[in-house]
Amino acid sequence: MIITMHGLTTMHCNLVTDYRIAKETGYQALELLVAKLLRYLDTGYTAKDLKSSSLGIPTVCFNALANIERIAPREHKELLAECERLCAAAEALGCPTIQLVSLCGLEGRPWPEVRKLTAKNIAELADIAAKHNVRYQLEPIAWSPIHTLAQSLEVIDAAGRDNVGMVIDFWHLEAGEGTTPDEVAKLDKSLIYGVHFCDGIRHSKGTKWVEEDLRGFLPGEGKIPIKEWVDAVLSTGFDGVWSSELFSPKHWEWDLWEIARESKARMERYLT
Hints:
272 residues, alpha/beta
């Protein structure tokens, strides 16, 4: 297992400090937030500069290249440019994986059309990534048209690229209400590129999705059956990236080292 600190857990923190926190609190790797990375690069620093500041902590994932369902000509061109920039940075940093997120740009369209258009974009993105020795992990988003494991696998199959797999995010799959741990247990472990270890509660039908309210729980304090999800992943034989992800404005106000330690300790209770 690669015990990984997720940059969302330390939201109000720059990248150089994220690496230091990860190192000093015993993590083996970092999953960095793209927003932090772009802020760093936009000041004139490079990915090579960042690697020299990483204190030997590997970067295992960029989170995330979002809105990948963009199909309007101008927006699609911007998507490909963002992809190229992130893939080049990942290659320079030695990061093998970038997360893909499809949101609500295709909402309301029939499922076959959503699948076809998203898969077409992913295939284009995957071809760019392959030139940089980068792969993608697709994350189902609980409130989006692609919110289940089964849908995600259909899209991956339609894309037809061997550098695209899945991230198993406990909250998104639980809150999306279309996936069970048993389905995860049946996955080929080669399709799992990472796990987002997190807790929270389900969305109440008819109310607005507010992630801060639904996900603001330390592992063990929400209502997700974490042990069932962990056991499902472990039963596949997966032994890669386990990323401790906490989306909680309340906890972001803690001492950052303390929240990193606590998140790690709670994850390890389920893994050992």
